[in-house]
């Protein structure tokens, strides 16, 4: 189904998401059970808090707070299909996208404003350029930035992973994170996310990267909080050693306590 949308239409999808959550609780519905397309300019908080099973597609542009509190749903935004401009050079949505998201996916063909994925704790989000303070206070999830960033990237970031194309390292707040090359396992994960971004949005940037992936992967920097990496390594070591779930959790907690 397709619907026209204007910037006076705020929190589109949130009431529907509430009804899904009331009936199906935290599990939500299977992916894309409800799949809606909107044409035009969305108001504030498009797709806020939407749960699993609800997909919202926007062909046009969004205002601030797209995907605020996203809790399992999917949001895809792209320019109008007859647009002649280069999408990666234009703004597709405003500030504070994905604020406080706990799960789900966001695919944005274009650039956004400041504070992208602040306090993200579990969502996967792809964008083609961001303003200042991206991934601020992020505690989980995966962020992929296929374009330029503003300053103060990853300030207070304590969990999750960010992948940035052609990163200017001087713009990263490195107090809690380290900058790593993308290795084989991470490369496969990153490639899969970018492939999905291409399939959902038709991104020209994604198509170019996927066309020569071995070369493209070397252009990304992986941003990972130091303590988060140590905990993940402890979990992998415990699983390789055949420890039980309880023993694995205990090993992770010990590493976290030591910092």
Strand order across the largest sheet: 1-2-3-4-5-6-7-8-10-9
CA-atom Rg in angstroms: 18 Å
Low-pLDDT residue intervals, each spanning 5 or more residues: none
Total strands: the figure is 10
Treating each run of at least 4 consecutive H or I residues as one helix, how many helices?
6
Structural class: alpha/beta
Kindly, what is the distance between the CA atoms of the first and last residues, rounded to a whole number of angstroms?
50 Å
Binned strand content: 25-35%
* Biggest pleated sheet: 10 strands, mixed
Helical content (DSSP H or I, runs of 4+): 25-40%
Order of helices and strands: EHEEEEEEEEHHHEHH
Written account of the structure:
With about 260 residues, the protein is α/β, with parallel strands linked by helices. The chain has six helices and ten strands, in the order E-H-E-E-E-E-E-E-E-E-H-H-H-E-H-H. The protein has helices at about 15-25, 185-200, 205-210, 215, 225-240, 245-259, and strands at about 1-5, 35-40, 55-60, 70-80, 105-110, 120-125, 140-145, 160-165, 175-180, 220-225. Strands 1-2-3-4-5-6-7-8-10-9 form a ten-stranded mixed β-sheet. Helix 1 links the parallel strand 1 and strand 2 (about 35-40). Helix 2 packs antiparallel against helix 3 and helix 5 (about 225-240) packs antiparallel against helix 6. The longest helix has 18 residues, at about 185-200. It is globular. The N and C termini lie far apart (about 50 Å).
């Amino acid at each position: 189904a397709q619907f026209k949308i204007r910037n006076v239409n705020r929190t589109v999808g949130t009431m529907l998401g509430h009804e899904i959550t009331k009936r199906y609780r935290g599990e939500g519905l299977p992916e894309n059970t409800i799949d809606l397309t909107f044409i035009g300019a969305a108001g504030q908080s498009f797709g806020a808090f939407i749960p699993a099973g609800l997909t919202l597609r926007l062909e046009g542009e969004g205002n601030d707070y797209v995907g605020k509190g996203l809790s399992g749903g999917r949001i895809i935004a792209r320019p109008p299909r007859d647009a002649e401009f280069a999408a990666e050079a234009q703004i597709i949505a405003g500030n504070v996208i994905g604020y406080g998201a706990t799960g789900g996916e966001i695919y944005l063909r274009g650039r956004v404003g400041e504070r992208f994925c602040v306090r993200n704790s579990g969502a996967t989000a792809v964008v083609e350029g961001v303003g200042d303070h991206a991934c601020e206070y992020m505690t989980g999830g995966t962020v992929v930035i296929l374009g330029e960033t503003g300053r103060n990237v990853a300030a207070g970031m304590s969990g999750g992973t960010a992948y940035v194309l052609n990163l200017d390292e001087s713009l990263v707040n490195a107090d809690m994170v380290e900058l790593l090359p993308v290795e084989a396992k991470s490369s496969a994960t990153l490639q899969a996310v970018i492939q999905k971004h291409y399939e959902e949005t038709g991104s020209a940037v994604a198509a170019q990267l996927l066309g020569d992936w071995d070369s493209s992967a070397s252009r990304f920097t992986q941003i990972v909080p130091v303590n988060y990496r140590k905990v993940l390594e402890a979990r992998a070591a415990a699983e390789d050693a055949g420890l039980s779930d309880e023993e694995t959790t205990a090993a992770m907690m010990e590493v976290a306590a030591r910092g």
